[in-house]
Amino acid sequence: MHEIRMQHPGKNALGTDLIGWLDEELRRAGEQPILLTGTGDAFSAGLNLKEVQAADSSGMETMLRSLDALYARLYLHPAPTVALVNGHAIAGGCILMLCCDWRIASDEPKSRIGINEVAIGAIMPPVTLNIVKRRLPAHTLDKIVFGAGLHAPEAALALGLVDEVSADAPAAASKRLHTLASYPRASYVATKQALRAGVTTVTAEDLRRFREIEVPLWASTEMKDRVAAVLNRK
């Protein structure tokens, strides 16, 4: 088992440093099962908003492409993956959790889990959106994405954002990963590949929309103003 424990600034905010570090950790994991978790009261609080605020269009496109690539690598990892959601998993942090095969959240009632991009005027890049569409139940997908809510663990479980809520999440996550890793690996990986085939592939239309609509929205003055407002509240 390869444990990846995020201990980065801004409640494990997904910026250049953490994205690069996670990418390297996934490379180091090779074909080992992975337990992914955070520290303190946060799994990951989402994108590094200071980097979003500072980025021009080119920088924003680079950041979003890096995020797409990271999510794809974790989603397609050739071994079982379990997210131990030790605390807040918000926006990009929630999507990072969704990329794992199984998601177990601590029962800490103050933790918040959800995808709130729409509420701040953001839009998920192509691979990210495809993964979210595949990993969330069809009957709650619109409620989660358009509702843009942040949910306590039990509510997140009811919506299908997590698979389990546990009073001893570390033990439950370890047990689940051990169980998944005990299955014949070739069968597990082949089934995973078949179930997820094509999800991380994007079309020419996806790329056009990303470059012409999505990146400009991320890099817009309006977005930077909204991000500044969020940062000023912290």
Task: Kindly describe this structure.
The chain has one domain (2-169, 185-233): 2-enoyl-CoA Hydratase, Chain A, domain 1 (Alpha-Beta Complex). The protein has helices at 9-12, 16-29, 49-54, 57-75, 92-98, 126-135, 138-147, 153-159, 169-182, 185-196, 204-219, 221-233; strands at 2-5, 34-37, 42-44, 81-85, 88-90, 102-106, 113-114, 164-166. It contains 12 helices and 8 strands. The strands form 2 sheets. A 5-stranded parallel β-sheet has the order 1-2-4-6-8, with helices on both faces. By secondary structure, the protein is of the alpha/beta class.
Level-1 CATH class name = Alpha Beta
Low-confidence stretches: none
Radius of gyration: 17 Å
Strand percentage lies at 5-15%
Helical/strand content category: alpha/beta
Shape: globular
- Major sheet, described briefly? 5 strands, parallel
Q: How many runs of DSSP E, i.e. beta strands?
A: 8
Mean pLDDT: 96
CATH superfamily: 2-enoyl-CoA Hydratase, Chain A, domain 1
Strand order of the largest sheet: 1-2-4-6-8
CATH topology: 2-enoyl-CoA Hydratase, Chain A, domain 1
**Contiguous helical run count:** 12
CATH architecture identity: Alpha-Beta Complex
What is the count of structural domains?
A: 1
Summarize the helix and strand pattern as letters.
Answer: EHHEEHHEEHEEHHHEHHHH
Can you give me a brief rundown of this structure?
By secondary structure, this protein is α/β, with parallel strands linked by helices. It contains twelve helices and eight strands. Helix 2 runs parallel beside helix 4, helix 4 (57-75) runs parallel beside helix 6 and helix 4 packs across helix 11 (204-219).
